[in-house]
Amino acid sequence: MNCRQARNHMEPYVVGDLKPELADQLEQHLKQCAECQRYYEEQKRIVALLKRAFGLKRQFV
Ligand SMILES: [Zn+2]
């Protein structure tokens, strides 16, 4: 998986909606790629903020 693919899959991954085989590949990429790790941390933070801001616990995922 390259960075472009990793970033395409990042959003469903962060909300737990990515297919397990793709999630595995994405995790492998994250281990090797500091830039995508940063991107991942950012996405996680945004999703956490959104969930808190809108009280979306079940609907969001
Ligand atoms: Zn990358």
How is this structure best described in words?
The chain is built from 3 helices and no strands. The chain is mainly α and 61 residues long. It has one domain (3-54). 7% of the residues are buried. Zinc ion binds at residues 3, 6, 29, 33, 35-36.
Secondary structure elements and their pairing?
Blueprint: H1 3-14, H2 20-32, H3 34-54
Helix pairs in contact: 1-2, 1-3, 2-3
The chain binds zinc ion.
What is the overall pLDDT average? 90
Distance between the termini: 24 Å
Strand content: under 5%
Helix content: over 70%
Which value, in Å, is the CA radius of gyration?
A: 12 Å
Give a brief outline of the structure.
This protein has 61 residues and is mostly helical. 75% of the residues lie in helices and 0% in strands. The chain has one domain (3-54).
Q: Main attributes?
A:
3 helices; globular; 75% helix; 61 residues; binds zinc ion; mainly alpha
